């Protein structure tokens, strides 16, 4: 069974940092791109970052470019999202999602349960 | 960036009704479109990929159509379990989601 498990969320002050993790199991991890998608309370879904299957391709939405960094460790079946310079508007549930292919140009066929990030003073 | 315009934002229908949700892309995305269902407190669930392919395990009352810039998701006979928010998603160039359609009974 394909499983994605996010962790690392929490409460942080504006300007602070967090690192999210997405631990995967049940599939050949180095065959799939992985994305991070966030959702603010009562709002829609926003794609924010993706990593190609081999980790060499990294992609970001303009809203997080320069502040967030995606990385992956295929030996640990884990993708990370390092977030710095956090803003109140980054408050959201953060999901990791598996893409149906090696590059971030596919649909998401599996999602984690999400981790809450709250940026507040 | 490709923008996705989804309509309606809210839809109220009766059990057994045929329901259609529309998604329009700001430029052609060929058939690179997926649809998801999301229930409160849960992660999105893939329903349709490649605009019209039904994901394994998804009931056949769900169907998708369209190409280029105009796409539709149809529920042929609405069931109580279909109460949820539905999102379209383009992946022709990175990723963009529509704002969602809340389906109520």
Quick structural gist:
The complex is a heterodimer of chains A (about 120) and B (about 100). Chain A is mostly beta strands and about 120 residues long.
Short key terms for the protein model shown above:
heterodimer, A: 121 residues, mainly beta, seven-stranded mixed sheet, four-stranded antiparallel sheet, 11 strands, 50% strand, globular, B: 105 residues, 0% helix
| Overall pLDDT level of chain A | 96
Structural class of chain A: mainly beta
Bin the strand percentage of chain A.
over 45%
Tell me the overall shape of chain B: globular
Low-pLDDT stretches of chain B are none
Q: Span between N and C termini of chain B?
A: 35 Å
Describe the structure.
- The complex is a heterodimer of chains A (121) and B (105).
- Helices cover 0% and strands 50% of the residues of chain A.
- Chain A has no helices and eleven strands.
- In chain A, strands 2, 4, 5, 6, 9, 10 and 11 form a seven-stranded mixed sheet that branches. In chain A, strands 1-3-8-7 form a four-stranded antiparallel sheet, with no helix packed on it.
- Chain A starts with a strand and ends with a strand.
- By secondary structure, chain B is mainly beta.
- Helices cover 0% and strands 50% of the residues of chain B.
- In chain B, a hairpin with a 5-residue loop joins strand 9 and strand 10.
- Chain B starts with a strand and ends with a strand.
- The A-B interface holds A 35, 37, 44-47, 50, 59, 61-62, 95, 99-100, 104-109, 111-114 and B 1, 32, 34, 36, 43-46, 49-50, 55, 87, 89, 91-100.
């Amino acid at each position: 069974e394909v499983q994605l498990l996010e962790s690392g969320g929490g409460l942080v002050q504006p300007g602070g940092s967090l690192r999210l993790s997405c631990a995967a199991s049940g599939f050949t991890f180095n065959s799939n791109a992985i994305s991070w998608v966030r959702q603010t309370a009562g709002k829609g879904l926003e794609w924010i970052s993706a990593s190609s299957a081999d980790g060499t391709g990294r992609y970001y939405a303009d809203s997080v470019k320069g502040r967030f960094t995606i990385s992956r460790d295929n030996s640990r079946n884990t993708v990370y999202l390092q977030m710095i310079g956090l803003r109140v508007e980054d408050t959201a549930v953060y999901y990791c999602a598996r893409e149906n292919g090696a590059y971030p140009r596919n649909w998401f066929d599996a999602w984690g349960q999400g981790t809450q990030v709250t940026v507040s003073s | 960036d490709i923008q996705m315009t989804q309509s309606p934002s809210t839809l109220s229908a009766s059990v057994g009704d045929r329901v259609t949700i529309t998604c329009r892309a700001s430029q052609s995305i060929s058939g690179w479109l997926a649809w998801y269902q999301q229930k409160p407190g849960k992660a999105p669930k893939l329903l349709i990929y490649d605009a019209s392919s039904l994901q394994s395990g998804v009931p056949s009352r769900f169907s998708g159509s369209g190409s280029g810039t105009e796409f539709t998701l149809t529920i042929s006979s609405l069931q109580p379990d279909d109460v949820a928010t539905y999102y379209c998603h383009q992946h022709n160039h990175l990723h963009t989601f529509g704002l969602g359609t809340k389906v109520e009974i």
